[in-house]
Structures are given as C-alpha cells and as structure tokens.
C-alpha cells in the first residue's frame, strides 16, 4: 500500500510499504477514505533532521473498516468510521473523565508503536475505544465527508479550547491564530454562546471564514498594537476568554495581556516552549486561569456527528484544497507556504 | 497612635505615629479591635534591606468604625466591620465579576497610598466598598472575633483556592502546605464537598487541626517521596484538585506532579517565582488547569459571616497564640520560628 513518510525537513514522500495486519485481537484495519495534513505536521516539516529511516506521518482519518480482531465488538467490516487523533481504550478512569488523549493504555499515531494515518490502510489499536462509527452515512455521501473528517482532530481541537474555557453565553472570546484550529475555535465559541468573538489574524481569506462562523471583530495588528486593539474593543478590560491556537511564546504572552482579570486562557496550540510566565506579573496577579491541552476529541465526537449531519455546523470548510494521496508532498508544501489553509486528501 | 513599622529583615517595631485622618469623603477611620500577622508579612521579614524609613505593616483587620467621610453610606460610627486585605469600590465591572483584588480604583494596604493595618487606627479608602459590617455582633462577643478576623484574609484565601478550583462533591483534593492558609483550604475544600482531602505537611500540631477540619490523609514526606505517596493514595491517578498554599517553586512542581490528568491546580500562595513549567511536560500534556491568585475575599465575606456566627465553620482556630499590639515584634519572631502558627493581636 501507499503511505506518507517524511525523511527530513521539507522532504515528504509517498511510498509503497507493507500492508498493515492485525497484531492484537483488539486491532482493526481501516481503509482510508479521506485524510488530511495537520498544522502540527508542519513542525517536523521545518525541523526534522534528514535520515535514511523515515518518519511515518498523519493522524487524521475517515475510513471504512476492512477487518477486525477477534475481540473487537463495536465496529464491523464496512462501517464508516472516524479515528480520533489519539487511540485509547475509552473505558479506563482517565477516559471516563473525558481525557482520552492521556489514556494510560492508549497512544498517538505515527511512532514506533503505530504507523501514521496518511496511508491507504491503517492499523487502529484498541478499535472499540478508538473508532467511532458514523451511522447511516457511506463514503459516497461526499458532501459531508470533509466536516466528518474534522471531527478526527481540527474542529474538535478548537472545540476543546472553548469547552475547557467553559465559555458562557454573553462572554467576550478572543481567538489567537487564524489557522484551521483558530477558525474552528471561533465556530465552537459561537456554538457555546459567546456574544462577541475577536479573531486575531491577518490573512483576510482566513479571517473572512472566521467572520462567517461568528467572529464579530478581526484584529490584524500584532504585538503591542494588537493587544491595545483588543483592549480598546473591550473598554480596556480585556476578554473573558482567550483561545490560543498557535503554540508559540508570543501568542502565550499576547493571550494573558488581552485576558480580562479573572479570565481564562485556553491553549490548544501545542506549546513550542516549556517554561513561561505564571507569576504575579503574568497570570497570578490578575487571577487568570490557564487551561487546555491535547484535545480528547473522542469525548466530543458522538455529540458532534449529528450537528454535522443536520448542517448546524460545517467545519469542513477549513479544507480549501483537495489533493490525492500521491500529491501529499505538494499538500505539505502548500500548507507550509500558506497558500493552502488545510489540505484535504482523497485516497 | 501605635503602629507597626518594619525597618529591615527581623526588625519590627511598634511606634507612635500620627493618627490617620479622613483624606477623601469616601474614607472611614476604623479603630482596631483585632489584627494579626500574615504568612506574607514574613517575606519582607526575611528579605527587607535595613533603612531609616520604615515600612508600615499589616492588612488584616476587625474593628469599629470611628468616623466616616461625607460620602460614606453603608457603614457608620460604632459598626463592627471586617476589612478585606485589599480595598476596592466593589461596584466596577471587575468587582462585579468577583475579582475585587484587581479593582482598578482599589489597592493594597501598607504602601505609600495607605498605611498598614497593624495599628490602633486605620484609614480605609472607599469605605463603602472596602468594609463589611458584621450585623448584631459587638467587640465584646469575644468568642467569635478570631473567626471573624479570618474573613479578612486567611480563611477566605483558602476558600478562594477551593472556589477557583471548582471543587465538586466526591473529588479528591490535595492541599500543599500546612500553614494557616493551607489548613483553611482544607476546611474550605470540606465545605465544598471534597470526599478525600490529602494534606501535605509535616508539622503534626498543624496537620492535626487539618484532620479535625476534614483532611482524610496526611502526607508528611516531601519531594519525590511525597509525590509517590499521593499517587499511591489515589491508585496512581493523582488528585482531581491540588490547592497550593506555599508559593515556592518546589510546591508548584509538586502540585502538577500529584494532579490527575485533567485536574486543577489552584494557587493562593503568592508565587516567589515568575516563570515555571507550563508546556507539554508539565501542564499541557495532561490537560492540567492552573488557576488562582490574590483572593478577592470581599466577594465571599457576606456568605461566610453567617457560617461563622452559627458555628458551621471555626476558622479562627488557626490562631494559636494571642499577643498585644506592643508584642507584635515577638509575634513576627514566633511565626518566623514556627512556634506560632498564626499570631492573633489584641489592640
């Protein structure tokens, strides 16, 4: 089968590799219908040292079950399924708390344990916990496939930011970052009842979608100027909630600067830093709450499917260009060049 | 009148100074009935450089109104009042949000703007916002005075930690620190329905009070050993909530190490650091929430007074020794030597 392998920064190849097989009775083999490239895939695309042994890529998947292990009971051959970007048993105390990304028996894709999902076929561990069937839909229902695929990561990552911030109706929410996750956070904030949504971003083709999804204000300025603009828009008080969908230190600092006293900063951009300000001068003095982390999309996916199917939300609009699996290297390059917001890959 | 002045580390004196006078029509002059020494007063007691110009001290006060400015309407001469440790207008949007410690028109005591409250008389700015009358009680009701004084800071600081952590019935709560705030946090966690309360502290005279107030387990071990003990007590998962009442970096690190995935760390110990771990390896990877800050006790005080008066809570038990105002230097020395948990000062 074909699979996507990265051999170093800027070097993505689609190659023939051995088909995956059932290794454990809890595994399933899924044939990919749609996959995509994540903003986080661009981190190694920038920094990976070249090497002979490539890195398998991808963690977003909408597919059809091909085969199941003997202990799999909740999915069967032929089911259209969404694979959340982390696999988990979905039964342990941590999963029952709703934090499946930290399941002690689960893990992430694209490592020595499990291959990446930008491939024709994938082995999904703990399939009962890790796959969610989309009832009544087939791969021929093309119109809903993009939005269903976003439930594997991007939309529900934006949703997680909003959920962890406990957005309440009437609040002002600022979203830092106009990438696909930031725009998803706008859509989720609107769903949770935010009254005012300030989107910080300077790519008008992207912020335009943010406005369609509920952003009431767009702040294109960056740094001090951008901070001042948000404060001006909020009578000097700042934003009840800040959803940080970037992961870089300037975005962190901007977030606490535009947060209202007593407000919440919710991060879903994977931090590219370990230490940051949390003392009296940053978080503590103004009783700011810092929350967020890897989105346990498994916890939200079943509630989101009906909203996609009935058209309440259309998160698939983050996909602005479609590629075949053979074109995946181009998809990476285009996302890296920011000519594509998020690449949709048909397999 | 007599007032407490610090001239350098270890050098506290009670001296005669000019009586305070009404400076603004919104001021009140309050005669002190009881005051006390705070753990945070010990920071300058350790570090203050000696100098000729002393530093006025104190921010906890139970007193009787002596005089009010022309615009003061909610308190009058003769009222027994509690002064929260920060003054505020209690009417602005930030105060209405319940974060009076960050009132843009308010401030803290013991600085150039307002003197400290370890004195016979104090000028209270914005008296309508900054003082709370204790109805039906006089300074002769000695039995309730200690607990009422704790509503000025220590008990409601512990309460703030528990409140910001949104403790829910049935949760496991770990309290880091067995000082007066940590013990108050135990009492507050119990009030909010915590099922299991693990108190990390090694002074048995203090942890004994914690056990009386609801601690179900005491962990005397520190560092790695203490962390492992908490994990062992929680089947390896850690604590839903950690209340951090110390403010030093080892306590911060201990807090995220003993927190359960998806859990909350709520800090009320004033951080003696600005930067700390918040990235994938500390907070983000396990979806930990960091919250807390200076306690807006003004927001909680009216609800707490009836609980003190009807005996539901007895937070005044943190005071284990009484001093006169003239003995304040001894009170500092005893608290610093940890022979006194919290010094109660009669004036």
TrEMBL record, chains A, B:
Keywords annotated in UniProt: Metal-binding, Zinc
Cofactor: Zn(2+)
Gene Ontology molecular function terms on file: metal ion binding
Highest taxon in the source lineage: Bacteria
Domain Alcohol dehydrogenase-like C-terminal stretches: 180-305
Pfam families: ADH_N, ADH_zinc_N
Keyword Zinc belongs to the record: yes
SUPFAM superfamilies: GroES-like, NAD(P)-binding Rossmann-fold domains
Alcohol dehydrogenase-like N-terminal domain sequence ranges: 25-125
Name by which UniProt lists this protein: Threonine dehydrogenase-like Zn-dependent dehydrogenase
Organism the protein comes from: Microbacterium telephonicum
């Amino acid at each position: 089968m074909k699979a996507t392998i990265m051999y170093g920064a800027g070097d993505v190849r689609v190659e023939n590799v051995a088909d995956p097989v059932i290794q454990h009775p809890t595994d399933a083999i899924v044939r990919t219908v749609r996959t995509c490239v994540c903003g986080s895939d661009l981190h190694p695309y920038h920094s990976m040292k070249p090497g002979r042994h490539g890195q398998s890529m991808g963690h977003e998947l909408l597919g059809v079950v091909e085969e199941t292990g003997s202990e799999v009971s909740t999915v069967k051959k032929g089911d259209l399924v969404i694979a959340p970007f982390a696999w988990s048993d979905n039964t342990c105390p941590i999963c029952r708390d709703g934090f499946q990304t930290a399941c002690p028996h689960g893990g992430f894709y694209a490592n020595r344990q499990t291959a990446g999902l930008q491939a024709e076929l994938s082995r999904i561990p703990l399939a009962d916990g890790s796959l969610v069937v989309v009832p009544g839909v087939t791969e021929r229902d093309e119109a809903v496939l993009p939005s269903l695929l976003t439930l594997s990561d991007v939309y529900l990552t934006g949703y997680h930011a909003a959920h962890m911030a406990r957005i309440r109706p009437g609040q002002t929410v600022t979203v830092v970052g106009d990438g696909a996750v930031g725009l998803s956070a706008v859509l989720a904030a609107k769903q949770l009842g935010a009254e005012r949504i300030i989107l910080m971003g300077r790519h008008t083709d992207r912020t335009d979608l943010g406005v369609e999804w509920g952003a009431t204000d767009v702040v294109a300025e960056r740094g001090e100027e951008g901070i001042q603009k948000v404060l001006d828009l909020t009578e000097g008080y700042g934003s009840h909630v800040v959803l940080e969908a970037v992961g870089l230190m300037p975005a962190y600092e901007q977030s606490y600067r535009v947060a209202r006293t007593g407000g919440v900063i919710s991060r879903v951009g994977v931090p590219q830093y370990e230490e940051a300000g949390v003392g009296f001068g940053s978080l503590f003095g103004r009783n700011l709450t810092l929350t967020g982390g890897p989105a346990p999309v498994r916890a939200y996916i079943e509630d989101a499917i009906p909203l996609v199917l009935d058209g309440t939300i259309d998160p698939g609009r983050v996909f602005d260009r479609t590629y075949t699996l053979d074109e995946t290297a181009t998809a990476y390059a285009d996302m890296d060049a920011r000519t594509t917001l998020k690449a949709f890959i048909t397999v």
